[in-house]
Batch of 4 targets.
Target 1
Amino acid sequence: MAVIYCRKCGEPWDCYGITYSRGEGNMTAADAVRFLKGEGCPSCHWGRHCIQCTGTCKKKDEISKCACHGNHYLIIHKLAGKAGPWQYDHGQNVCTFPGKPKIIFQYPDSESGDSKLHEALALCPYCADAACDCMVCSGTGKLQHLEASRLDAALWSLVEESDEDVTLYLNP
């Protein structure tokens, strides 16, 4: 399969749902346009977060037994319009998030049956404070810009894999 690389983080994406059948792949049609304009991708949260640590600023712990599996973040959720606590899934169990979460990224509201659901990426309250800083972003959580050679490869992949006039998307 042909691949197009994100111009912000260099993450590879299948070009079919981005160029040929926009919105039928891993991105919505609106997200595909954002991607083609060079605004980033879902992996880097549209150019906002380091893809190594997902914006947590912490190095992943490969042997962790924590609820976050060493990622130092949890995906939390709660019903929109309700005053209840944030919750997270831990295997087969739904657990209540302790205290106020340190939210890294708020996802768009999603539908769950007949209810709206707020979802967010939050620092793990159990292990994030003790974790080492991410070596890619030096603990900032910010996306590190691509070096020139990787940016050239990302732009070339867009030109090669698209049948449309890509000059619309090449303006910074």
Target 2
Amino acid sequence: MRQIFLTLLILFFTVASALADGTAPQVSTVLSRDMLQITFTVTGDASTGAISDQDTTDGRIIGMYLYRVIVENDSGDTSVTDNSDVYILDAGGTDLLNGKGVDQLDDDTRNYIRPCRHDPITGALTLDVNSQATASGVYIVTLIFAK
């Protein structure tokens, strides 16, 4: 009985810590033969609004170019902290938006960002959002890739 209790206790804390940084499931959509879209629907942590960095999981982006990033509040849910920062990082930690994602996550604005860097993607990219502090804030970050 004690072993079961300890196992359940460990499981509880493991799940709680995994959920502590919010969630950001991603969905890949083929837009055309030469275009792919990855959409992150992000829900910030219930107490801090933060999310941990999120890596792309679709290997089809390798050899493609990051064409556009769309950042918007999910208007049907909890708002977000205005002027939050969005970064799209490559494996070396370079921001593919070259700072253009700073102050782009707003409560009631849909922002389109054109990346500055035009090298083909060579691996997974990382979504990094800073300064979003609204508890359970919900927003959408869409990455569009082209060949």
Target 3
Amino acid sequence: MAGFKISTNKRETRRLAWWLLSAFFFFYLLCSGGHISTPDGTIMFRVTRSLAKEGRLDIRQLEMWRGFGGMETIDPATGEKHFYSKYGIGASLAAVPFYWIGEALLPLSGQNERDVFDQNQWRKKYKTDTDTPRTVKLRNLFYDPRRENFDEAFLSFVTSWSNALLIAGTIVGLFMIATCLGYSVNAALALALLAGLASPLWHYSKTFFSEPLACLALVWSVYFTVVGARVNAPRRAWIWAGMLLGVVVLTKIALIVLVLPVGILILTYAIHKPRWEACIRIAFFGIAFAAVVGMIGVYNSIRFGTLMETGYGTEVNAWQTPFAEGLSGLLFSSGRGLLVYCPLLILSAIAFPRFAKRQPALGYSWRSGCVYSLSSTRAGTCGKADGAGDRGFSCLLCQSFSCRSLSFWSHLLATTLVASPYSY
């Protein structure tokens, strides 16, 4: 990249951002797997379908795992039982447009294509004449993908495209943060390519988890926070920052731990503005955040009749894995180890001191997230995973830095990889 020069005016930067969005979105679509392969994703898809078709929140339970992923309640007026997802509504709501796209495309599929999602058909094709299966492993799904249920299989596939777009938007957000901070377009493009092709973001584009939306919202919240810190920046920038941070929590309630580092970033920028103006902007940020987060209470009331019940029940108190065991699993396990699946974090750690010197506000924000997560941890919840306890580190640290959530990790990537040899 040494001799590679790109125009850095605002119009060219935005044009590059649109090209990045399109390129990564279609690239991730080509890499999509064709199914929603997890029970979590299947539950959230059913919420999307219920919202898109009937405007309802209750769903049908998983036939293969009844009771998973939610709670059953009884309507006091009618006595009917309703099953509600325990997951945040954000990802399901964001996927509704793609469900409608799937409904529009569904009539275009022919009869010869109705077996394409049927795994039993593929299993038959991967057997030898002696009926001995070859070394091909196909996951069992939590919905029926056979010809008779083609509509649901097709709609779940198209609905899952939403995460490809969300991850592509996250990469664009990282690119825009880098250029907004004053780094060269070369550095911003290097960051975008590394994030999109050499990190777990690629994997999450193929899933139907809630993390991609939380990741997108957090990255763009940081972007609007940085934009709002400029001299004469419009107040609406921090309103957008507050709303997007609220979307993070609306998507996954455990990610409320990210409010502290982003809040510190806002305060660090605010102290450089006139006192009255700083108070107004912080108030706008807080009101916007509270307005979005307030939707969680409404969502809880509709589902469970109370503001505080999220559907997770006693799971929130089940943190029992020892700290050291969980930390080693988080970093080195074969299933979700950060340093195994994202060695770029090592590069980020090396680059961070240089970045923090150039961007002290973001440096304080990242450090506060680390210190708060480490000091506030309780031993982890989900026990051992892959023999290493990687999901049992702690609620706060896992939700902030694990590959499973990605959100704050993407902030780390955005704020450190830009301090590369191509930064100037």
Target 4
Amino acid sequence: MKVPKQFLLNKSNGNNRHTQKNYSEWFRDYDCNFYIEKYFQDMLYMERKRAKRSNSRFLLLQVNIGSLLTGNGDSKHVKRIVQVLSSFKRETDIAGWYKHNTIMGIIFTDTDKSYEDLIRGIIHKKLLSILNLNQLKEIKLSFQIIP
């Protein structure tokens, strides 16, 4: 992803003082600390290419919370769900908005089908601890092993 020019220069002295590691911080949705949709989509594209090149697989988890976010307390629910999802995300995994304010996504790098059952169980148990059963029914989980 090409970084816009205004992010590359320090206005005080004109020197390029930022590193690639810092660039990703500019692409975070600070309400929930997930990557914004465009950056997450770019990372998904790059991970697909990497997996194909290295003959490895990854698991894409999509959490559709769109129908849950129709009433009051929306941001409270989003923050709690983000906390649940972040609690078992590894340092190498990538979390962001697959579709902003509708579908959250996590790319679990170097994983396979067996990891899906473990993640599904953990998510269901943790979400049930923060949401009531009717709210939990509004959330749709999707798992894809890629490629």
